[in-house]
Design goal:
The protein is of the alpha/beta class. The chain is built from 14 helices and 15 strands. The strands form 5 sheets. It has a 4-stranded parallel beta sheet, with helices on both faces. It is elongated. The two termini are 40 Å apart. The protein binds one RNA strand through β3, α1, α5, β9 and α7.
Length: 466
RNA sequence: GGUGACGUGGCAGAGCGGUUAUGCGUGAGCCUGCAAAGCUUAUCUAAAGGGGUUCGACUCCCUUCGUCACCUCCA
């Protein structure tokens, strides 16, 4: 495969993802100075799902995601909390992995850190200075925007308008207010030596240096949140293309923001929901479903209603999985196999069509409805499980969803208790039967009484508080 | 002010120049000893307003209004 088509921000058109032996993706990660929030989670879930889809279909994916671990905000946090910048970034990187592992995000191939790539940045900057595209001024080394004629091509801005509308405090030492820092002079920690004086790198240069280092000069997809289009990605293009003389990323893919009451989640508005908080209250699966419930390019409003809707769907999915898994009926496949194959085909087609996950989820849950409908009639057979389960598991894998599995001990005791309960029910000892049911329920296991038999499923505990 | 995007039924949310998207919610029912879960069925026939183009527009063009994002660190 594949026929994957993605909307490219730069050309403002849909582009086919061309596949050589490897698909190389660079995702702009987080600045590690504070807790990650649900907005970070959505962007990362989107790219994780894209990567999972490609891999599930037999492609080799090189996904690189950086950590920005040198930044003014980290410095501020360190001084506010009387620690070092290292310990600040270390702490939040640890938190990051804890939370995003819990979210079932596949680890990137590499998580390069800015602080570990200073020499790469310095050589890139040196080259730009040699080419007279960058210059040294009082406060640092700057990229001269006027030397890159295509500046603004990503964000569709033109330089004159930017200059007139600029709200940046004008730094008189710069040639042009739009010029951005490649290297900032400083004597206080964190600080590195450079040919131009001690200091630290500007923000944008790390992504140019690290993406080129790990993925080459021209790679497949460069991703991040929409809010990075300007200035971050615009500047990356300017630096990288000036450096290599080649087009940078082939496809620029940008994820929409999470909003609250229609407004972007941000610190200044005080409407931030941390990943940790949402994980505690809704768990990883609901977050993933929620994150994919709208098209990746559009905003999603964080509301209890939407979360609850996804919780309802999650419960249907749990039922479906256990109905399939515990099926022991004998019989044929009926027409269901073509329905299920159809769902799989539509699911893939939706994702290939500019990563249309809301449509893919519709197909996914449509398939679940078909299976659950059959289950309600007690018509699930081993043969049906044999054909449907691999497809269900494929979709679960692509979506990064993970069902809670019961331990062997739990399964053993559940079987015993179900047997006992059946006895009680036969003897019309309903109080005892209900007591046993409560006991099973305390184990997080839910019983499904069919006509002929009782099924069980281990349900994920979800508090469902926003 | 500039740039970009968007405005679909109570809510969420796709596609498409001419066929019911779909889901949630809500009503009724089935199953059950009772529940839960699940299922079945019904329900809303929606496209911000105004102009065009067209045999025909939710889908294309123009315009008014509205919303959001970016222009400053930001996923």
């Amino acid at each position: 495969m594949t026929g994957l088509v993605i909307h490219d921000t730069l050309s403002n058109s849909r582009k086919q993802l061309l596949i050589d032996e490897k698909i190389r993706i660079y995702l702009c990660g987080v600045t590690v100075y504070d807790d990650a929030h649900i907005g970070h989670a959505r962007t990362i879930v989107i790219f994780d799902t894209l990567r999972r889809f490609l891999e599930a279909n037999g492609n080799d994916v090189d996904l690189i995601q950086n950590f920005t671990d040198v930044d003014d905000k980290i410095i501020k946090k360190a001084s506010d909390t009387a620690t070092s910048t290292d310990s600040v970034s270390k702490k939040y990187i640890e938190n990051y992995f804890e939370e995003f592992d819990a979210l079932n995000i596949k680890r990137a191939v590499e998580y390069p850190k800015a602080t570990e790539h200073i020499p790469d940045m310095i050589s890139l900057i040196s080259d730009l200075i040699t080419k007279k595209i960058a210059y040294t001024a009082k406060n640092g080394v700057y990229f001269s925007v006027s030397k890159f004629s295509e500046y603004g091509k990503l964000s569709k801005k033109n330089i004159e308008e930017l200059e007139s509308g600029s709200r940046i405090e004008v730094d008189e030492s710069k040639n042009n207010p739009l010029d951005f820092a490649l290297w900032k002079f400083s004597d206080s920690s964190p600080v590195w030596d450079s040919p131009w004086g001690s200091g630290r790198p500007g923000w944008h240069i790390e992504c140019s240096a690290m993406s080129i280092k790990y993925l080459g000069e021209n790679f497949d997809i460069h991703g991040g949140g929409r809010d990075l289009i300007f200035p971050h990605h615009e500047n990356e293009i300017a630096q990288s293309e000036s450096f290599t003389g080649k087009p940078f990323a082939k496809i620029w893919m940008h994820a929409g923001m999470i909003t609250i009451n229609g407004e972007k989640m941000s610190k200044s508005l005080g409407n931030v929901k941390t990943v940790r908080h949402v994980l505690e209250n809704w768990g990883p699966n609901i977050i993933r479903l929620f994150s994919l419930s709208g098209h990746y390019s559009k905003p999603i409003d964080y509301t209890e209603e939407l979360l609850k809707e996804n919780l309802v769907k999650w419960r249907q999915l749990e039922t479906c999985y256990y109905e399939l898994r515990l099926a022991d009926g004998i019989g044929g496949l009926d027409s269901i196999s073509s329905d299920i194959l159809n769902s799989k085909q539509k699911f893939d087609a939706a994702i290939e069509n500019d990563f249309n996950t809301p449509l893919a989820l519709t197909e996914f849950f449509n398939m679940i409805k078909i299976i659950n409908g059959l289950a309600a009639e007690e018509k699930i057979t081993k043969d049906i499980t044999g054909m449907a389960m691999p497809i269900l598991e494929y979709m679960l894998d692509v979506l990064g969803l993970k069902l809670i599995k019961a331990t062997d001990d739990e399964i053993k005791s559940v079987f015993e208790l179900i047997g006992k309960r059946e006895e009680c029910r036969k003897n019309k000892q309903f109080e005892e039967a209900d007591t046993i049911r409560d006991k099973i329920s305390d184990m997080g296991i839910h019983l499904i009484d069919h006509k002929e038999k009782t099924l069980w499923m281990k349900k994920e505990e979800i508090k469902a508080d926003t």
